[in-house]
Design goal:
By secondary structure, this protein is an alpha/beta fold.
Length: 303
């Protein structure tokens, strides 16, 4: 489909990062169940770094595939999908976190209301005694339904925003899409607050292997430190560097605050506490190195 910026065909473009190995059947079934397939209001742009499991000609008419370089980062995949999209609104999803039923209705309702920036819950897909839940505990447990209204965080995916909130001079197809920095800009420069809804959830089904996940946390911390000063209003680099030594304790406390609302999540937190500690030390070490010597190239490894 040719992109014409003067004619906006869809109400929202869903941009999906499909990185590595994933269950396409699970994600597609979720799209079908929530009536997102062959929906005239929705375009679905899927950026993928591996061979896609289906031929593009066999897909529904509102699903568009975008092949990226092998091992492109998840940020780059989102960036490519955003660059190929054309609507006023963009919804960011991960193929490993399919939307639950009701997601579409809330998203379209808020678009009709001209809500500029909003997000939803992230529910656990794995059993809470399954080691694969570790990533959820660390990154998403604070967004379990119902996400606290006063939570000053936004999930890594399941966020919807007006295209106008993207920085004009940033080439997302090349640099990738940084959710954190987009939200910072919206809040600090434009005075826009994120609205949170408990009826537009996605479900977490990401895999977990020890070595890969710990390295991923190091890479994420290093990328964050190397990139954060692109945004205005940041503290001095030296202050950030010194503050890193408190980070593991603060990050673990943040995770505990997220899980303590739910007795079963709390049990899972203590069951995998040793992995959580190692993860947050890895992130903090990466952030420390990033402040000291940079490392923007590490952003290209994120998944």
């Amino acid at each position: 489909m040719a992109i014409n910026k003067d004619v906006w065909v869809f109400k929202v473009d869903i941009v999906v990062a499909a990185k590595g190995v994933y269950d396409w059947g699970l994600f597609f079934a979720a799209l079908v169940e929530d009536h997102l397939v062959e929906n005239d209001d929705v375009a679905i742009h899927i950026a993928h770094d591996q061979v896609f499991p289906l031929d593009a000609t066999s897909l529904p008419s509102n699903i568009f595939l975008h092949q990226c370089e092998n091992n492109a980062s998840i940020l780059q995949l989102w960036g490519v999908a955003i660059a190929k999209s054309e609507s006023h609104y963009i919804a960011v999803l991960d193929v490993k976190c399919p939307p639950e039923r009701g997601w579409k209705d809330r998203v379209l309702s808020e678009i009709d209301n001209q809500t500029e920036l909003f997000c939803g819950d992230v529910e656990p897909g794995w059993d809470l005694i399954d080691k694969r839940i570790v990533g959820y505990l660390i990154e998403y447990s604070q967004f379990k339904n119902p996400t606290p209204v006063n939570l000053n965080e936004v999930p890594g995916n399941n966020i919807v925003f007006k295209r106008a909130l993207l920085a004009d001079k940033v080439d997302v197809s090349r640099k990738g899409f940084f959710k954190t920095f987009m939200v910072w800009r919206a809040e600090k420069e434009l005075g826009i607050k994120v609205r949170k809804f408990n009826d537009m959830a996605v479900c977490y089904y990401k895999s977990f292997t020890y070595k890969h996940y710990m390295y991923r946390r190091y890479v994420h911390g290093r990328c964050f430190a190397a990139s954060r000063f692109d945004s205005q209003g940041q503290p001095p680099r030296l202050i950030c560097f010194l503050f890193v030594f408190l980070l593991p304790f603060l990050r673990i406390w943040r995770i505990f605050k997220g899980v303590k609302r739910d007795p079963e999540l709390r049990k899972s937190f203590f069951r995998f506490f040793h992995l959580i500690v190692q993860s947050e030390v890895a992130w903090s070490f990466g952030e420390m190195v990033g402040y000291a010597v940079g490392g923007r190239q590490y952003c290209e490894q994120l998944d």
